[in-house]
Amino acid sequence: MKLTAEISMYPLQDNYLEAIEWFIQRVDSYANIERVTNAMATQVVGEYSEVMAMLAVEMAAAHQKFGKAAFVCKFLGGELNLAHRQ
């Protein structure tokens, strides 16, 4: 089953862009997960178990490396076309 997730990361530090860019680069290392980022959030699509496993690993890694950060996520069962523009 496919999963579409939208993730926003809010690092609680002055140099927040460094942490966000680091997180996005880590997400890109997963070949089976498609990613699109805009000014507000990052959307990913992939197999349900792979997306959830990636989020568990990478959110923990971000907390370990950068300390406190809030992640806001939305999940939709199924695959959305991340290239869609209206």
Polypeptide structure, described:
The protein is an alpha+beta fold and 86 residues long. It is built from two helices and four strands. The protein has helices spanning 16-28, 48-66, and strands at 2-11, 34-37, 42-47, 69-77. A four-stranded antiparallel sheet has the order 2-3-1-4. Helix 1 packs antiparallel against helix 2 (48-66). The longest helix is centred in the middle third of the chain and has 19 residues, at 48-66. It is globular.
The biggest sheet amounts to: 4 strands, antiparallel
Determine the N-to-C terminus distance. 26 Å
Strand arrangement within the widest β-sheet reads: 2-3-1-4
Question: Using DSSP, what is the number of strands?
Answer: 4
Broad shape: globular
Radius of gyration (CA) equals: 13 Å
Which helices and strands appear, and what pairs or packs with what?
Elements: E1 2-11, H1 16-28, E2 34-37, E3 42-47, H2 48-66, E4 69-77
Antiparallel strand pairs: 1-3, 1-4, 2-3
Helix pairs in contact: 1-2
Short structural description:
With 86 residues, the chain is of the alpha+beta class.
Features:
single chain; 37% helix; four-stranded antiparallel β-sheet; alpha+beta
